[in-house]
Write a structure and sequence with these properties.
The chain is of the alpha+beta class. 27% of the residues lie in helices and 34% in strands. It folds into two domains: 124 residues, Trna Endonuclease, Chain: A, domain 1 (3-Layer(aba) Sandwich); 53 residues, no CATH class. The chain has a five-stranded mixed beta sheet, sandwiched between helices. Strands 8, 11, 12 and 13 form a four-stranded antiparallel beta sheet that branches.
Length: 191
């Protein structure tokens, strides 16, 4: 696999994790076998592609990945904008490993193309942390079956720390409770 294909796979995996924090099942594809047809009849190879439906609206995104040693030129953004105009209902994104030439970013904004650098993508550690938050920490949508627990929050976000009803410094243990409809259980954590 060449450097360009590796970069495409990296971007594809980042977006797959970003879009599926809560196991939404959004398929992120791309590479040599992914093509979309434009209204002109032209078939375009797509580096990274995803689509999903929310609130009855279909969201379609194509991402061009540029793992070049030189910054991306305005002409490349122009070519992507042409592709976006030809493929109905898609949003265009370009991600460059080495930035953009002068004027290319402003041109992308004028044409409605999101231009990012690889440095703007979240790190693997950040993605793993966010995934753990969605599967391990309860939020306001959690039903609390069979047990509920009270957790501390900071700035409206769950901190992952149980709200303790007491801390015994001599025995170094905290008491916290979890609740269900008919049962209250006490737990003691030794530190």
């Amino acid at each position: 696999m060449g450097a360009g294909a590796e970069f495409e796979e990296y971007v594809r995996s980042i977006y797959s994790m970003l879009l599926n924090f809560k196991d939404e099942g959004i398929l992120v594809t791309g590479g040599a076998n992914t093509y979309l047809s434009g209204i002109s009849g032209e078939r375009y190879q797509i580096d990274v592609y995803y689509e999903f439906v929310r609130a009855g609206v279909r969201h379609r995104v194509i991402i061009e990945c540029k793992d070049w040693k030189d910054p991306v030129k305005r002409e490349v953004i122009n070519a992507l904008e042409s592709k976006v105009r030809d493929i109905p209902g898609v949003i265009g994104v370009i991600i460059s490993r080495n930035g953009y030439q002068s004027g290319a970013i402003n041109f992308s904004k004028q044409k409605g193309i999101l231009a990012l650098t690889s440095d703007e993508l979240p790190s693997l550690g950040t993605l793993i942390g966010e995934r753990l938050k969605t599967v391990a920490l309860p939020d306001e949508t959690c039903l609390g079956e069979p047990f509920w627990t009270i957790m501390m929050t900071r700035s409206g976000e769950n901190t992952g720390v149980w709200f303790a009803l007491g801390f015994d410094r001599t025995e170094k243990k905290a008491t916290f409770h979890s609740f269900s409809r008919n049962i209250m259980r006490s737990y003691f954590l030794k530190t």
